[in-house]
Design goal:
single chain, about 270 residues, about 15% strand, globular, binds nicotinamide-adenine-dinucleotide
């Protein structure tokens, strides 16, 4: 029997970045609890395709670019015509410079390219603003909604550059770049702004700040990271599902404008 506090079986859940590692996790967790899920991403991945196979009529994938208002409006129209207004929005899509990015991307701040700043800000911050504007407006009109904006420990505190010392020691020039952090910080106050703005419309807006997820990272990185984090390990990909369920459901109905930090203790020291 479902605990009514955490019941999401009547929710229409939109998840951006559903083709990625965590978006697919959130979608699977919601589908397992009988929510209707609409996954948005630039393209399907094998993982989001498998959700479609397993989710049946309760799951739909829509190709959409979070930086393109027209594509988001078209996605909203499709969702509304098939399922009705969305009731939960998980703003999960984001980009970061991969560790293998060209040297100027991961080089000193003094040389960080303006074009990289624009690209990251466009997806990670403007994309969240557009999704909130377009999908959140539909929620406000329907007087019901919960928006979950996914941030990062690197949006709450600075990246610890000493973590990457092992790369510099082996002759690489590597600093965790600035734009990802700045974009994830921006999300925190966009959340607070909208929480107040929509407070009387029964649309709750919260952030979820998470730490690094294990994804076959190289051993030298894992050593460095796990030494720094109090719990001594990276998160498993399913370890944020409970927080997403909490924020999406009635269990958190008096919570808005909050930043829920689930980080293995990273930000407490
Ligand atoms: N994985 C981690 O260790 C970690 C740590 C902290 C925070 N986060 C945050 O969690 C979220 C998910 O991370 P992830 O590891 O699953 O990332 P991921 O790279 O696996 O997935 C991100 C998804 O976003 C999609 N995307 C990128 N640009 C888009 C656009 N313009 N329009 C639509 N979709 C777009 C990508 O195609 C991809 O499928 C992100 O917000 C990330 O910043 C992740």
């Amino acid at each position: 029997m479902t605990d009514p506090l955490f019941d999401v079986s009547k929710e229409i859940v939109l998840i951006t970045g559903v083709s990625g590692q965590l978006g697919a996790e959130y979608a699977g967790a919601m589908l397992a609890r009988r929510a209707t899920v609409v996954g948005l991403d630039l393209a399907q991945s094998a993982r989001s395709q498998s959700l479609a196979d397993a989710g049946g009529v309760a799951y739909r994938f829509i190709a959409a670019d979070v930086t393109d208002a027209a594509s988001l409006r078209s996605a909203l129209a499709q969702v509304q015509s098939v399922f009705g207004p969305p009731t939960v929005l998980i703003n999960n899509a984001a980009i970061d410079s991969p560790p293998s990015a060209p040297p100027e991307e991961n080089g000193p701040f003094e040389d960080y390219p303006e074009s990289s700043w624009d690209k990251v800000m466009n997806v990670n911050l403007k994309g969240v603003y557009l999704c909130c504007q377009i999908f959140g407006a539909a929620m406000a009109k329907a007087n019901k909604g919960s928006i979950i904006n996914v941030s990062s420990i690197y949006g709450l505190v600075s990246p610890d550059q000493s973590l990457y010392e092992y790369r510099r020691k082996r002759g690489e020039i590597f600093y965790k770049p600035v734009a990802y952090s700045a974009s994830k910080s921006g999300i925190l106050n966009l959340t607070r702004y909208l929480a107040v703005y929509w407070a009387k419309k029964n649309v709750r807006v919260n952030s979820l700040t998470i730490a690094g997820v294990f994804n076959q990272q190289e051993p030298a990185f894992l050593d460095s990271y796990c030494h720094r984090i109090p719990v001594g390990r990276m998160a498993a990909a399913d370890e944020y599902n409970g927080s997403v369920l909490f924020l999406a459901s009635e269990a958190s109905r008096y919570m808005t404008g909050h930043n829920l930090v689930v980080d293995g203790g990273w930000t407490v020291i």
